[in-house]
Design a protein that fits this description.
Structural class: alpha+beta
GO molecular function: RNA binding
Distance between the termini: 49 Å
Largest sheet: 4 strands, antiparallel
Number of helices: 3
Protein name: RNA-binding protein 48
Organism: Nepenthes gracilis
CATH class of one domain: Alpha Beta
Strand content: 15-25%
GO biological process, one term: mRNA processing
Radius of gyration: 17 Å
Keywords: mRNA processing, mRNA splicing, RNA-binding, Spliceosome
């Protein structure tokens, strides 16, 4: 019987710096469906860029896309909704890409989270 520590965790925990307005979408069918993918992701918020990533490892019949949202809150919501969802017969794998952020993006992310937490605390006091 495996020990508790040897088992995989049941949930994934993200810190503020792990989240990002940049997403990597894997397992997209290699059918030239970038416009359809952009339309799908745009339903969750304003997408600034959506482009295929040629340098990423992918299967012979799948592509990897890089998506940049205007706001991190839209990125968070989209990841929660579309990770492991089915798109044109394939299960999408959506992950954050904090390595794509600039220093300004990271600062904006931290300040935004600080504002959200302070607003929640203020709401709870009333």
């Amino acid at each position: 019987m495996p020990r508790y520590k040897d088992e995989d965790p049941a949930i994934q925990v993200y810190t503020v710096c792990d989240e990002s307005k940049y997403l990597i979408v894997r397992n997209v069918p290699a059918l030239g469906c970038g416009e359809l993918l952009m339309q799908l992701f745009s339903t969750y918020g304003e997408v600034e860029e959506c482009k295929p990533m040629d340098a990423e490892e992918c299967g012979p019949f799948t592509d990897v896309y890089w998506i940049k949202f205007h706001q991190i809150s839209n990125s968070r919501f989209t990841k929660r909704k579309l990770d492991e969802s089915v798109f044109l017969g394939n299960q999408l794998l959506v992950s954050y890409a904090p390595n794509c952020e600039s220093l300004y993006d990271t600062k904006e992310n931290l300040e935004g989270r600080r504002t959200e937490v302070l607003a929640r605390l203020k709401y709870q006091r009333h």
